[in-house]
Amino acid sequence: MSQNSHMLDTPIEFLKGVGPQRAETLQKELHIFSYRDLLELYPFRYVDKTCFHKISQLRPDLADVQIVGKIVRIKEEGVGRKKRLKAIFEDETSSMELVWFKGVSWIKKSLKIQEEIVVFGKPTLFKRTFSISHPELETLEAHKKSLVTAMQGVYPSTEKLVAKSLHSKGIAKLMHELLVQVDSCIPETLSLEIRKEYKLISKRDAILNVHFPKSEEFLAQAHRRLKFEEFFFIQLAMLKMKRHKKQVNLSYPFTNIGEHFNEFYKEQLSFELTGAQKRVLKEIRMDVASGKQMNRLVQGDVGSGKTIVALMVMLMAKDNDFQACLMAPTEILATQHFQGLQEMVEAVGMKMALLTGSTKVARRREIHQALESGELDILVGTHALLEDKVKYKNLGMAIVDEQHRFGVAQRSKMWKKNQRPPHILVMTATPIPRTLAMTVYGDLDISVIDELPPGRKPISTLHRTDKHRLSMFHFLKQEIEKGRQVYIVYPLIEESQTLDYKDLMDGYESICRHFPRPQFQVSVVHGRMKSEDKEAEMARFVKGETHIMVATTVIEVGVNVPNASVMVIESSERFGLSQLHQLRGRVGRGAEQSYCILMSGHKLSPDAKFRLKTMVQTQNGFEIADADLKLRGPGDIMGTRQSGLLNLKLGDLVKDSKILQYARKIAIDVLEQDPDLTRDENRLIYKEYMRAHHDKMQWSSIS
Ligand code: ADP
Ligand code: MG
């Protein structure tokens, strides 16, 4: 490590103006431990410090504003912990309030009446009066002097930081101090070749300009450079990991396509595989024949037919004398997989068992034995498959369905179930936009089933509010009379199980009133039920004994009841897009016209409106995923948080996808020419890679 990088590793405490107490708060609130951490705390937006608002022009939707005016009066309200300070602040157009809840007496002393000041903060509207709480204040004099650049960064801050005077401006002050100190020590991390080719400014210029931009143009350059770097090193790490896996992890070559596979294909399969299914099977076949371990993700929208692909892959294992397992996230789903596959598996003379948390001890023992002796060919189940007691004679293929429910650590347990790690196939119905998939699953190979089996009718999707409830019930009756079945789903309220349960039960009672026995049979499944009871209720619905299934989102993943043709989603505004899409995918599985009815309140937030509108407009999982990504940002997309790799500071996977693709291409080029980064021109890259990514990557030599 050079002198320079030592400098950036200095604990933040030692920066002038920080000290132990502020350091502790910076650590706790923003994870800033070192000079480098602070340097990488980038402004999340910029304000034009030459631009001022008038009080009469304020709107509640404005972000931070600057106003020039005077404090005309100060008053204290409340007592004890509820004490607050209010200042009446005026400009020539109107008046508003400034409010402080903390440090009241200290702030009171510092406020000067009738002096011209600049107030900075986010205005909120309450009872027709605008106010700013804990504003930043500066005399107009000081403001004019401190105006280094017109564009000023706004830094993230929190209540606790503000209490230590580390609001945005306080942080900017520290940043200024830091930059003065480390200016000449900011190390370059990219080679000159790359910088030249892509016209990237130096790291130092980028850092200076991202914090104190000389102009908008400089800021744009700084962002471009820093985003490129961010994507580049993530991609580099991913690609290195992928190469590493391919080299190191020998697995079992499946060289035969034999009797089980062929017999099934010719005799048992009752439909023609779609082109996409065939293509994916071919990709998998190439992988497993190679001798290296397969680590493949199959993405396929709900209903695209992943299960049959999984089965055929397990037949490939059998043809090469290996066992296979299929793991699902819930008991209901595991059971359904088991029941759905059993007949086909037996028809080709193979043996399969189901192992879940509720498998009885005696049966469990039988299964363990049959697995170890090799009598069992396929094991289907839940997390129970991961237990140490579950030992195989010769596991060659592990399939994980609906991957987003599993953590990385859990998947890694599968690796240990044989001497060499088995091939791993992960199946997910959460469509992930390509750019994102590349970044999140950069270490997995990806196959996409992008075609639905023929003859599927589009699901007619409607958005309705409470005033349509009776006509909605009427419609359900008509459908049930035609012989169809109906789901009615209530949201899971994570913060309050009680509320959750109450909503569901109120709904259930009202449905029972409108759909009286014996003409109608209503099932209910919720999180408080014992799993046997859930299974039993679910089974009744699957068999067609009940007409309506009232449930919380337990049915979200994977259940297959082709006769169910209506999905009613209550309080649909409370669901995320990908969940709504998954739920809708529960219908439209049979030959009948299917419906999805999104019930919601009357008043909707703009986001909720957008979500429901998207659902009504499109059924394409990838379009929905794109919309979801735009709405929520990548950090929230299911399954990406756990990857831990998407801690992007600046880059936006949607808006900056061009830069991302470019960075990926360059990372590929660099590694192709210099896999170990030992060449002189890649010295800087190597150094940064080792510093930033080496440690982080250790854990993820698993998938
Ligand atoms: P998912 O991808 O959501 O897991 P499934 O595997 O449950 O989807 O398949 C949904 C339904 O489509 C099943 O009933 C399955 O038998 C049927 N299916 C799968 N592939 C085809 C195909 N190529 N042609 C016709 N039906 C198919
Ligand atoms: Mg499925």
The hetero molecules present are: adenosine-5'-diphosphate, magnesium ion
Query: What ranges have pLDDT less than 50 throughout 5 or more consecutive residues?
Result: 634-645, 695-703
Rg over CA atoms = 30 Å
Shape type: globular
The total beta strand count reads 22
> Mind summarizing the main beta sheet?
7 strands, mixed
| CATH-assigned homologous superfamily of the domain at 460-618 | P-loop containing nucleotide triphosphate hydrolases
Helix content: 40-55%
Give the percentage of residues in beta strands.
Answer: 15-25%
Distance between the termini: 31 Å
Structural class: alpha/beta
The CATH topology of the domain at 460-618 comes to Rossmann fold
Number of helices: 26
Tell me which CATH architecture of the domain at 460-618 applies here.
Answer: 3-Layer(aba) Sandwich
Keywords summarizing the entry:
single chain, 703 residues, alpha/beta, Rossmann fold, disordered C terminus, binds adenosine-5'-diphosphate, binds magnesium ion
Short description:
The protein has 26 helices and 22 strands. With 703 residues, it is of the alpha/beta class.
Detailed description of the structure:
It is a single chain. The chain is of the alpha/beta class. Among the domains are: 1-50 and 147-187, no CATH class; 63-139, OB fold (Dihydrolipoamide Acetyltransferase, E2P), CATH 2.40.50; 259-290 and 305-428, Rossmann fold (3-Layer(aba) Sandwich), CATH 3.40.50.300; 460-618, Rossmann fold, CATH 3.40.50.300. It has 26 helices and 22 strands. Strands 6-7-4-3-2-5-8 form a seven-stranded mixed β-sheet. The chain starts with a helix and ends in a 5-residue tail after the last helix. The relative contact order is 0.09. The chain binds adenosine-5'-diphosphate and magnesium ion (MG).
